Amino acid sequence: MPTKHERIIRYIEQLDIGHKISVRQIAREMEVSEGTAYRAIKEAQNQGLVSTVERVGTVRIEKKNRSEIERLTYAEVVNIVDGHVLGGIAGLHKTLNRFVIGAMKLDDMIKYVEPDSLLIVGNRDQAHRISLERGAAVLITGGFDATDEVKEVADRMELPVISCSYDTFTVAAMINRAIYDRLIKKEILLVEDMLSPDQPPIYLRLDDRVSNFHASVRDTGHSRYPVVDEAGKLHGMVTAKDVVGHEWNDRIEKVMTRHPITVTPKTSLAAAAHEMVWEGIELLPVVNQQHHLLGVISRQDVIKSLQYMQKQPQVGETINDLVFRGFEEVREKNGEIAYKGVVTPQMTDPLGNLSTGVLTSLMTEAAFRRLRRQHRGDMVADHFHLYTLKPVQLEREIVLVPRLIDLGRKVGKVDLEVFDSGQMVAKGVITAQLIER
Predict the structure, then answer these.
(1) Which helix (H) or strand (E) holds 228?
(2) How far apart (Å, rounded) are the C-alpha atoms in residues 19 and 13?
(3) Does 404 fall in a domain?
(4) What is the pLDDT of residues 44-84, one digit of tens each?
(5) How many other CB atoms are there within 10 angstroms of residue 317's CB atom?
(6) Do residues 185 and 193 make contact, with C-beta atoms less than 8 angstroms apart?
(7) What confidence score (pLDDT) does residue 34 get?
(8) CATH number assigned to the domain comprising residue 343
(9) Which domain does 303 fall in, by range?
(10) In 3D, which of 189, 185, 262, 260 has the Cα closest to residue 435?
(11) Cβ-contact 165, 143 below 8 angstroms
């Protein structure tokens, strides 16, 4: 039987796109407390089913596929620019394909305005009206209002007119930043990307017998299964090792391993892979907030997915990429590989010295690059011992020298030294968990 939380999520999924909901309304219609309704709505927001806009409320939106994650809804634009909606609230759930900056004559501007786009412009009433009539929403910069005629057209066309206090350049930069952040997020594979709703997980129940385990092994060829109760809540895992020496009539509840390690759909695949390698686990159950079983992922499937992502074109840069961008690989006189670069203003702390966080990122990236020369796979930092000997000032050229100490099948260890004008300024040792591709 589904829980109250799950019933509310299903109810929200069945609502029409654009439908407004509230905590009080959900609580009344589903006959639950307002606290339960609030928590369910927040979960629906995390799942991409609804979006909350200040002074408007919570709106049912269409859940986007990972392939469309970089596309924004008008509701998301409102939140990004700290704006408020002047009209066309019914269209907040719609997705924009592009935005146009209206910094030209009206006749030239209109050539670029297309349906499902967003015109970013100041207080130009005629441009507002024509844009809406052409199927594009409007974002008015500078905190200006819209005319009653424009608001009426916006309501009729169900296209939002948004006002915000920022200037046009700042607004465009904010939206670009939001799209760019999503591109980076899109590259990070999550556990939910591997789960197929068409393939429900194979499991055993608490009151099943060891004979049921052996029958499942014959039917599926698998040797480990999650164990759930009648409501689908996970209670344990049972493997071939667990049933050895037990009678065929013994209950699964008696032989299973309780409190297994689990992941959620929002766990990154890299984190799941690290957990599997570290704990020696071949199969991880995937559960929701109520600990109900959603599926399982195997170590083999995780590694295949990470391999696939390594072959995809990169469309965004992480903080580590940006920090290491100015460093070049050089070869020392003794033949060792090193990385040389200059400390930029963005890398410094308030005192003008190289930030400890940036130094850690630089050393980790240098260590990983050294490991990748002999290990064609992914890796996750496990232990990092850092000793800072001397502060490094702005615009100083530093050299990072990583030396491989040990490389096994599952673990690699690198010694790192950082030099400024020939003087050692930091030293560290990094241990990384290695994941085969």
Answers:
(1) strand 224-228
(2) 11
(3) yes
(4) 887 778 877 766 678 887 765 544 445 788 888 998 898 99
(5) 15
(6) no
(7) 87
(8) 3.10.129.10
(9) 192-309
(10) 189
(11) yes
CA distance 111 to 167: 23
CATH at residue 293: 3.10.580.10
Amino acid at 127: A
Tokens of 359: 């130094």
Give the gyration radius of the chain's Cα atoms. Answer: 28
Residue 431 sits in the same domain as residue 324: yes
- CB 256, CB 234: distance < 8 Å: no
Tokens of 260: 């297994």
Q: How many CB atoms lie within 10 A of CB 172?
A: 19
Can you name the residues that pair with 328 across neighbouring β-strands?
Answer: 340
- CA gap 81, 98 in Å, rounded: 16
Amino acid at 37: A
E-strand ranges in 67-130 read 84-87, 98-101, 117-121
Scan for tokens 């992502």, then name that residue.
309
Indicate the residue among 187, 218, 236 that finishes a domain: 187
Q: How many CA atoms lie within 13 A of 436 on its CB side?
A: 7
Q: What's at 409, amino acid-wise?
A: R
**Single-letter residue type at 340:** K
> What confidence tens digit (pLDDT) does each residue in 226-250 have?
999 988 899 999 999 999 989 999 9
Number of helices (H) and strands (E) in the chain: give both, helices first: 15, 20
Q: Are 204 and 285 in contact (CB under 8 A)?
A: no
Q: Is the distance from CB of 198 to CB of 113 less than 8 angstroms?
A: no
Residue corresponding to tokens 């009653």: 148
Give me the residue label for tokens 């100083």.
396
**Nearest-angstrom CA–CA distance, 380 and 371:** 11
User: What tokens does 360 get?
Assistant: 């850690």
